[in-house]
């Protein structure tokens, strides 16, 4: 009886992402401006391309095109991370991928909590890029101990959020009233607090060690630091940002503009300096400022196989050896040109990408394939491989969309929002084991996930072609 009244995890996630969007637009008006710009560009792109519009109408819900696709938070302790995992699980969001950002001068490692199945992603793809601060990378031992003590004392979840998460785990879900309360309680964790947990002096010391440490340790909770709607033309939004009074980061991260989009392209407006107050010695408050929150946009392409990803990483590295993008945007044009030129080595036709084994595709029967299934006899099943079924026009293939993140791009997003002078070196030290111990589970491997979707689609095709005569 009770089970029937549970709200689905997908619906809870949708309500959560809508509530986050409302809260963030109120808290950061520039983000609302970015949303307006994105809606305008998406609308213009679709009016200029009716074929694309039709395809999107068939596969996505058009009125939700410009909605948020992801957000990001930075946590301070293993206990916060493992509790966050339980909270996200109630919303059907699971940790996929491990990203080590120490190599890029940011003392965190991360995962993305996201829906994993095709149906869940279609219903609402919202994900949260979640980083855990690595105090072990901070050289100053005394400061590290103080930061640990401050973090240990804070409580980022409301008692209601903890209780409802436990209830959902015990009972297998939440009913309507429970789900509504859950969203309202969980949102509190992501809220901005303009009163710091620390004195101005302590903030400065944390800030001197790394701006990101100050951002995580000084506040009551892990305020959402950006949300990211989907754009259909990222170059256009990047170009128009100044006209809307918002300052874009220097360059678009990821691959260059292409006919066949690969992986993920993203850009953001630079984080805003916001007024905060610090604890004074006399129990009062002292005015200051903090820079953390921004808005981002993303445009996704095909998920690449390990071979394709290897090629992408190599070409990106090569481009950056030719021109390293400067934080002030002064060589953005040169960087764009180098990137485009180097990426000519990456095939830009779906059939070539498939033939070279660079990307993941979803296979389905064509109209001819659906008609022909009666004539494909069992004996042929083993003989006829996918390539000949495609050549005969029985099977077609579509790119599988990349739903994850890119460490070099993420580092670029972090850096541009930490201020231009914040570049700092750490010894590269990926530690996925440690991250998973803190998280309480292993993260899902994104390549296995895409390979699984591809394989299932192939089996469905073969099954459908032979089922009729079996
Ligand atoms: C996260 C930056 C990474 C992305 O889209 O790659 C990110 C952060 O600044 O906390 O969100
Ligand atoms: Ni982001």
Automatic annotation (TrEMBL):
UniProt-recorded Gene Ontology molecular function terms: dioxygenase activity
SMART domains: DUF1338
Alphabetical list of InterPro entries matching this protein: HGLS (IPR009770), YdcJ_bac-like (IPR047869)
Class in the EC hierarchy, top level: oxidoreductase
Pfam families: HGLS
Keyword terms: Dioxygenase, Iron, Oxidoreductase
Transmembrane regions listed in the UniProt entry: none
EC number(s) stated in the UniProt entry for this protein: 1.13.11.93
Cofactor: Fe(2+)
Keyword DNA damage recorded: no
Family the entry assigns: Belongs to the 2-oxoadipate dioxygenase/decarboxylase family.
Entry protein name: 2-oxoadipate dioxygenase/decarboxylase
The organism's taxonomic lineage, starting at the top: Bacteria, Pseudomonadati, Pseudomonadota, Alphaproteobacteria, Hyphomicrobiales
